[in-house]
Design a protein that fits this description.
By secondary structure, the protein is an all-alpha fold. Helices cover 78% and strands 0% of the residues. It is built from 3 helices and no strands. The two termini are 38 Å apart.
């Protein structure tokens, strides 16, 4: 059976820090794009707004997924602690 690195030698392991860092980078880039568009409204077109809305929804979905992941990890930790105390 092959490992992910043998299939893609450039693949990096997914860690919580790398996930948050990537999310933060996407969110920061999106804020810069919104500021740029807002500062130059005369050059804006409907396509720019639609693209920004799409990107905002993607960033929000990623944030929701990260939040759900944290919630699931907290539940697992809580259950593990409860099980250990029950022994």
């Amino acid at each position: 059976m092959s490992t992910p690195n043998s299939q893609n030698p450039n693949a990096k392991p997914l860690t919580f820090i790398s996930l948050i860092t990537a999310y933060n980078r996407l969110q920061s880039n999106l804020v810069l794009q919104v500021r740029s568009l807002a500062s130059n409204m005369s050059a804006a077109n409907p396509g720019s707004f639609i693209l920004l809305q799409f990107q905002m929804s993607q960033v929000q979905q990623m944030g929701d997924s990260i939040s759900n992941l944290i919630n699931q990890v907290n539940k697992i930790i809580g259950t593990t602690i409860s099980n250990q105390q029950g022994r």
